[in-house]
TrEMBL record:
PROSITE patterns: FE2OG_OXY. This is Fe2OG dioxygenase domain-containing protein. GO terms for biological process: flavonoid biosynthetic process; pigment biosynthetic process. It comes from Kalanchoe fedtschenkoi (Lavender scallops). The keyword Oxidoreductase applies. The keyword Ribonucleoprotein does not apply. Keywords: Dioxygenase, Flavonoid biosynthesis, Iron, Metal-binding, Oxidoreductase, Vitamin C. Belongs to the iron/ascorbate-dependent oxidoreductase family. It comes from the Eukaryota. Its cofactor is L-ascorbate. Residues 195-295 form the Fe2OG dioxygenase domain.
Length: 334
């Protein structure tokens, strides 16, 4: 059985120290590497703006320059987001014994379930985070074994959120596709179309007595095509740009959009997968609810013909998504 960070945190807070495996090297420690100058933050885009061409241009610029942007007035009711957050918090407030009922099976190939360790870290360091993964769309991909049963509201909240996400997902892909010279659903079809998988992860970052030397999640890009993230009000998401780590501003009820590896590949490098990390707080619990929009496991993803020409040959190999994920999680060169 894994030892979870939530358990370690209780002991660490009383002692004022953290185990050595959570202490990062100086070149990673947020107390040293976080930018403290004038605030520079990724773009905020109003999805309700009537001039869709202008909205799409803003998205394409943000996807190329930052790999991340926030959207507001996205038509997902605040109550739906708040309910998703409420049932997620309630899960992590359950007893350890109850949470263990949803643990990721040790030999499972899928990452679904409750756990702590997600991927190999070369230096053996650990992130100050516990998580729960499960799919919320499409229905034939869902395994309710990993959906907590502590409250009937958990299933209802997740199903309603998934339903509300569809319109946002379709609009994001359509407008980002236009920035690549594509029309309609072309970009979405290139990463799965109707078979696109929505994988939810609930991140739980308990208070940490040494937030200056620990990280919640180390620097990485997402394997997905897009990631749509709901944060709570405790800051922690940071983006790497111009050789600095910048805090991402918290905006109530905004959704944070990450460009993932698969969209960088399909766009042949025009859109950049965002290099990001998460920090932790000394006194407050941080949580986030990213949904990773993933191609089906057996789908091959490569640069789209409209993203290439004689002057822009393919920069990336075509590869099955399952193989891509296996290599990335196990630190195998692609």
């Amino acid at each position: 059985m894994e030892v979870h960070v939530q358990e370690i945190a209780s002991k660490s807070l009383s002692e004022g120290t953290i185990p050595s495996e959570f202490v990062r090297t100086e070149n990673e420690q947020p107390g040293i590497t976080t930018f403290h100058g004038p605030i520079t933050s990724p773009p905020i885009i109003d999805l309700s703006e009537k001039d869709e061409k202008r909205v799409g241009e803003k998205m394409a610029k943000a996807a190329s320059e930052w790999g991340l942007f926030q959207i507001v007035r996205h038509d997902i009711p605040d109550i739906i987001i708040h309910k998703l957050q409420q049932v997620g918090r309630e899960f992590f407030e359950l007893s350890q014994e109850e949470k263990e009922k949803y643990a990721k099976p040790p030999e499972a190939k899928s990452i679904e379930g409750y756990g702590t360790k997600l991927q190999k870290e070369v230096d053996g360091k650990k992130g100050w985070v516990d998580h729960l993964f499960h799919k919320i769309w499409p229905p034939n991909a869902i395994n309710h074994q990993f959906w907590p049963q502590h409250s009937p509201q958990y299933r209802e909240a997740n199903e309603k959120y998934a339903e509300c996400l569809h319109g946002v997902v379709n609009k994001l892909f359509r407008l980002l596709g236009e920035g690549l010279g594509m029309e309609g659903r072309e970009l979405q079809e290139a990463v799965g179309g109707e078979n696109l998988v929505y994988l939810l992860k609930i991140n739980y970052y308990p208070p940490c007595p040494r937030p200056d030397v620990a990280l919640g999640v180390p620097p990485h890009t997402d394997m997905s095509s897009l990631t749509i993230l709901v944060p709570n009000d405790v800051k922690g998401l940071q983006v790497f740009r111009d050789d600095h780590w910048f805090d991402v501003q918290y905006i109530p009820n905004a959704l944070i959009i990450h460009i993932g590896d698969q969209l960088e590949i399909v766009s042949n490098g025009k859109y950049k997968a965002v290099f990001h990390r998460t920090t932790v707080d000394k006194d407050k619990t941080r949580m986030s609810w990213p949904v990773f929009l993933e191609p089906p496991p057996e789908m091959e993803v490569g640069p789209h013909p409209k993203a290439m020409d004689d002057n822009k040959p393919a920069k990336y190999k075509k590869k099955k998504y399952a193989d891509y994920c296996y290599c990335k999680l196990n630190k195998i060169p692609q």
